[in-house]
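Is iron/sulfur cluster placement plausible here? Inputs below.
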Amino acid sequence: MKSIEELNAVKEKTLARLNGNTVRIVVGMATCGIAAGAKPVFDALKEETEKRGLENVVVSQTGCIGMCKYEPLVDVYVPGHEKVTYVFVSPEKARRIIDEHIVGGQIAEDITVASVE
Amino acid sequence: MTHAIDKTNFCNKQTRVALRNCGIIDPENIDEYIARDGYQALAKVLKTMTPEQVIKVILDSGLRGRGGAGFPTGRKWQLARQIVPDADQKYVCCNADEGDPGAFMDRSVLEGDPHALLEAMAIAGFAIGATQGYIYVRAEYPVAVKRLDIAIRQAREYGLLGENIFDSGFSFDIDIRLGAGAFVCGEETALMTSIEGHRGEPRPRPPFPAEKGLFGKPSVLNNVETYANIAQIILNGPEWFASMGTERSKGTKVFALGGKINNTGLVEIPMGTTLRTVIEDIGGGIPNGKRFKAAQTGGPSGGCIPAEHFDIPIDYDNLISIGSMMGSGGLIVMDEDNCMVDIAKFFLEFTVDESCGKCTPCRIGNRRLLEMLTKITEGKATLEDLDKMEKLCYYIKENSLCGLGQTAPNPVLSTLRYFRDEYISHIVDKTCPASVCKKLLKFTITDNCKGCTLCARKCPVNAISGAVKQKHVIDQDKCIKCGVCMDSCKFSAIEKK
Ligand SMILES: Cc1cc2nc3c(=O)[nH]c(=O)nc-3n(C[C@H](O)[C@H](O)[C@H](O)COP(=O)(O)O)c2cc1C
Ligand code: SF4
Ligand code: SF4
Ligand code: SF4
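Reply from A.M.:
I modeled the complex. Tokens:
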């Protein structure tokens, strides 16, 4: 990279991707999350989105948000909506998130952070 | 109703600077870091600033080292820039050894936002005139190592590390070195000796690393969290950073909240936040309706803060003045069930294990200190021993070679300062007020006993006798205080005092 313009181009392109039309499902995968079982959750989310052919849904990972006691944590970003955080997510709950929230458009309220706070 | 984690009590009293990207970006994707203004600070520095200007910004921000001692970061960089004007090579090092028991602030940054570290190290390199950086990271952090490795490769691919970055003529690269697994390797001179490929033992200072550091060259060593603030200071200005915090402690601090607290986890708060806010509001208070007794900060080098200082604003100087220290950010909450002598012993056991043995006050002195503490917890000490112990503490502090020995007695001194009565109870009354110290406990069977014989059958040393349906008794001479009987009794008929 030779110039700030090049850096800004990457920034704009990535912002467009992140804020675009895709639904993002983000799993907390720091050591604490992994220890609590985030990997099978990540795999289940991936498998389920692929199985259902959900094209504009991306599953990705992130670091630790700090609330280790609720781990595994999953954030769902649907364009135009407030982020939803799911807690104590298991592979089964991961499939529910896809089924109810991503496909059905209904937040699975009984497993979000609001259900335990 | 909100379902977003950011809106919870735990999160909305925090201010995220060092952790701003953790839990938000994909740490294995450099583009997501760039989308959050990543590498803009490096670009700004290389394109528009002189090294002296960079150092001035960091000085003006008031940033102090987050790894323990709180040395002003700008001053450290200034010394490394100026002290040996004709040095042919200099180094920028990052301390990611994070050895305090229970601490994981740095791990979180390494795993959640590795590019923030790389960018800051490159900025430090430009500021002091170094072209090579080393990250010394705990081998026990495999996820962090992997993500750092990916981040370095991605940064090199984009030309954000390597030759002629941003076409500025400035070149800088970073390599990872795995820690040797000893706590003392986190000490700056031991860390550098370890990177050089030798056994990680401290060496006397002066000369300080700014003059003769890694491979004998002028070097800067900063902690992970210290670096995690740098790019934000460059982008938002020193005034922005200095607007957070207290008179002499600027910005934020990350703490790993642990112990007897409802919300264990990682929190980042502005300096000057009170312990009360951290424990009650963010931490959600103490579980099971128990009473707060003390908070331990500074890990094995730190001390305990009692309830009377609950409203003290947390900053470097306040913590020192009440006999503790900031340390790297462990914050362990203790309630009425914790014995303070036992806590002091726990930390001292750790330092005795980790002493490298190079100097006598630390190697022998701390071992003697631990023996004295053990005597107290067994009810075998006298008040005279207590005085001797206190003297020994000061002797060790004054005569040890490195920070490990110099601070090892702190947990003892601070518990003595605030909880001397607990020491006295152990010594004079031969009791442990919190019912923790085993040798001083007495298990007895009360009138609730139904004579079911279960405890007698479970006791590993046959200390319990009694006929069926008759009240049982414990032979105190035989009892080894294992607690098995108490756990097994279904009628809560066994007391521990
Ligand atoms: C025994 C001992 C262990 C230390 N361990 C660490 C550590 O794990 N991480 C760290 O950043 N600093 C540690 N330090 C402090 C470092 O020596 C050094 O002061 C610090 O890394 C400087 O960075 P800072 O100015 O950014 O805080 C330790 C010091 C001592 C005496
Ligand atoms: S104070 Fe302890 S750890 Fe430090 S050099 Fe001396 S023996 Fe080693
Ligand atoms: S288990 Fe409890 S009730 Fe049964 S004999 Fe022992 S003390 Fe008595
Ligand atoms: S505490 Fe252990 S050793 Fe003592 S009486 Fe109970 S079971 Fe036996």
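Short version: Helices of chain A lie at 4-19, 31-36, 38-51, 91-103.
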